[in-house]
Amino acid sequence: MKYEQALLLVEGNKLKRLENYHSKNGYIIVSASRSNNTEQVNNENKNLLKKELNRTSFSFREVKGYYKEFGMEPSLEKSFIVYAGNKDSANELYNLAIRCCRVFGQDSVLIAKPNQTPQYFSKNGKKVDWATFVKTLYGDEATKQIAYTSFSKISHNLDRYKTKNKQIKKENVFSFV
Fold it and tell me: What are the pLDDT digits (tens) for 29-68?
């Protein structure tokens, strides 16, 4: 097995463990970006969303969300994955997702209810009919999907390698089908 293949396998397993852990209580992936907005407007909206998330009791992490339309290159949406701390807060997390979807003009938001396969929901809180997922894909297979999420990672020790050109960026990618 080549090193690159082994690395993808390890990264996929890390993401799988992460998903399994957080699926017990639920999580959401939200964005404030729109492809028809300027980069400045999207950055301002991202900062507003981040302020909103900071006001909650939920932990979150910034991720890169990608969406591909009709054979085009994927467009980047700066997104956040937000984790429910316990099953009791899952309903509050669902409401936050729908509110953010509505406020930031999103067509849909990804919601993983506790111990359920993630699904997209509209700003009206209804499950969308264009996507029903049954499993999670990782790595290269994930990037072939219409939408996927990336956890960026720098593979070198930052203290040891101070210059950016010595840091190799890795992306841990997952999607749902």
Answer: 899 998 888 999 999 999 999 999 999 989 888 888 887 7
The Cα angle at residue 83 between residues 77 and 88, in degrees rounded to 5: 140
**10 Å Cβ neighbour count for 14?**
14
52 to each of 46, 47, 70, 133, how far by Cα in Å? 10, 9, 33, 28
Domain that holds residue 56: 3-176
Give the list of residues 6+ apart from residue 162 with CB closer than 8 angstroms, or none.
none
Task: Return the half-sphere exposure (C-beta side, CA atoms, 13 A cut-off) of residue 153.
Answer: 15
| Structural domains of the chain, count | 1
- The full length of the chain comes to 177
Query: What are the two backbone dihedrals, phi and then psi, of residue 68, each rounded to the nearest 5 degrees?
Result: -110, 135
Question: Tokens representing 142?
Answer: 């994930």
> How would you class 28 by CB atoms within 10 Å of its CB: exposed for 0-12, middle for 13-18, buried for 19 or more?
buried
